[in-house]
């Protein structure tokens, strides 16, 4: 018989590598390249913060949902984080463009107008974005208006990313419809939070939604990266002021 090669009990001769900190997670270069190639407005540093938050939330084993798909720029990061966690990414949009993307506004892109009907249609561009990133199998696209879909929803979510319309009506409805579905310990992300009004195009509706979330007692702030706020769902809610 040969010598017993089993490792004797006791401390290992080296320290195992610590588990990856999900809040420091980063996408692979090809995923980041797909994100940067897609039409959209989220800068890279905010996208990396979104990816890290989605990676952490994915550990809950629940779906990750965004409101406001546009052409799928942020969806690429959400979907890849969901793929790595073994969960599904969901994205909600009517694909007719938000207020500031209509003709005559600074964020209007004529190439996204459907010539057959004369209206914005970002759905084909979104599908091309997912195809290019190789992530079609990891995303469920919910095509319709956010309040209508939220009213039918009944599944807890590990993450909700609010990045839809920027009026008080639409941002408020997105928050009211989806924030209650964030599971305890899950994350609520709000994009385009501007505490000060900079110009006519940077409304403060997302900032007011952010304040509502904090005042509700349901959420505590985890991080802030430029205009992206990450909040965590906590325990029993405190009734909002007023």
TrEMBL record:
Presence of keyword Transferase: yes
Domain of life: Bacteria
Region (Disordered): 1-26
Any one biological process term the GO annotation gives: methylation
Keyword Methyltransferase on entry: yes
Gene Ontology CC terms, in alphabetical order: plasma membrane
Keywords on record: Methyltransferase, Transferase
MF GO annotations: methyltransferase activity
Compositionally biased spans, kind Pro residues: 8-21
Identification of the protein by name: Secreted protein
Pfam families documented for this protein: Methyltransf_24
Organism in which the protein naturally occurs: Streptomyces minutiscleroticus
